[in-house]
Amino acid sequence: MRYVHAMSQPAKSPRATAATDAPETTAGTRAAAQRLKMRRELAAAAMELFATKGYEATTVDEIAGAAGVARRTFFRHFR
């Protein structure tokens, strides 16, 4: 009886499962890529300011402004 009961349930095909998981994976990958891009832009802005003003004279507000983002965005990427 146990065997018959297990067989009566529809099996998920690998293709259907992959199609269901794809949007989450793609969205997660896209979000990770956007975070990485922003982090690199902030780092590039910081390096440019460090080269011109020096490390000690550069503020977070200046880095965020040079990258075109809010101070809070800077701290979201660099805690």
Task: Report strand %.
Answer: under 5%
Radius of gyration: 24 Å
- CATH arch. level architecture of the domain at 38-79: Orthogonal Bundle
**What is the helical fraction, as a range of percent?**
over 70%
Tally of contiguous helical segments: 4
Descriptive overview:
The chain is mainly alpha-helical and 79 residues long. It has a domain at 38-79: Homeodomain-like (Arc Repressor Mutant, subunit A), CATH 1.10.10.60. It has helices at 2-8, 14-53, 60-67, 71-77. The protein is elongated and about 45 Å long.
Summarize this entry quickly.
This protein is mainly alpha-helical and 79 residues long.
Protein traits:
mainly alpha, elongated, single chain, 79 residues, Arc Repressor Mutant, subunit A
Summarize the SSE layout with pairings:
Blueprint: H1 2-8, H2 14-53, H3 60-67, H4 71-77
Helix pairs in contact: 2-3
